[in-house]
Design goal:
By secondary structure, this protein is α+β, with helices and mostly antiparallel strands. It has helices at about 1-25, 30, 105-120, 175-190; strands at about 95, 100-105, 125-130, 135-140, 155-160, 165-170, 195-200, 205, 210. About 20% of the residues lie in helices and about 15% in strands.
Length: about 240
């Protein structure tokens, strides 16, 4: 009996209060529902998606390749007497590969280049010129892998270097021969094979031997101009017509 009286009293109070709240513009439905507490949150600006484009992963990564993977192959042996890339062209000094053809990796060339840059930075205006480009993708497979199931995944970039080819050149800023020799030969210790110091104006190499040229202007990178009258002439054989 007491409980019913209390419930009637509460209901009557709600009915009496409803018109007064509705007259103030407050809906009566808010009395039956409980609204969750809204906590103020700090203002955060919307994140804009910025695309960062990287042209090269390193200076030894090719811009584009025709094929994703390549055969292992062999280092070419220049049996036809080619002298391409065996003379100093851009700088004044360089290093030349004198051992059998080698396959050099991008990591080895980066290490050698870093050593040369550290040594020649004391000379203002000195520059380094890289004559090799790693365009051979080398793929590897895990140890103790069964035969078959395709070629392995890409691992690193490499290049094939024949004998006699120039690897690096330095020049500019009036760099002295002693500084260039120390920088290039120290970098040569980080590379496979035997390297020697080279100067501008030396004759081209066919393999591991220099090529004798008949004209001084045939030497690519000759620093001193030679007059026409100073060029060696070939011996005349046979009678000369008057």
């Amino acid at each position: 009996m007491l409980r019913s009286a209390r419930s009637l009293l509460i209901s009557s109070r709600a009915v009496i209060a409803a018109p007064s709240m509705s007259s103030r513009g407050i809906s009566t439905s808010l009395l039956r529902t409980s609204t969750p507490s809204i906590r103020p949150t700090p203002f955060t600006s919307p994140k804009t998606a910025t695309k960062v484009s990287v042209r090269h992963a390193s200076t030894y990564t090719p811009r584009r390749t025709k094929h994703k993977k390549a055969h292992k192959g062999r280092v070419p042996v220049r049996t036809g007497g080619s002298t391409k890339g065996t003379t100093i062209v851009f700088g004044e000094y360089g290093i030349r590969l004198m051992s059998e053809g080698e396959r050099m990796t991008a990591k080895q060339l980066q290490t050698a280049e870093a050593i040369i840059k550290r040594k020649i930075k004391v000379v203002k205006g000195a520059r380094i010129f890289q004559r090799l480009h790693t365009d051979l993708p080398v793929c590897t497979k895990g140890n103790e892998t069964r035969m078959g199931k395709g070629k392995g995944s890409f691992d690193y970039w490499a290049c094939r270097v024949p004998s006699g080819k120039i690897l690096f050149e330095v020049g500019g800023g009036g760099i002295q021969e002693q500084v260039a020799f120390a920088a290039l030969m120290e970098a040569g210790h980080k590379l496979p094979g035997k390297v020697v110091f080279a100067k501008r104006g030396e004759p081209p190499y066919a393999g591991r031997k220099p090529v004798e040229v008949n004209k001084a202007e045939d030497i690519v990178g000759a620093s001193d101009p030679v007059l026409v009258g100073e060029l060696p002439t070939a011996p005349v054989v046979g009678p000369i017509a008057a």
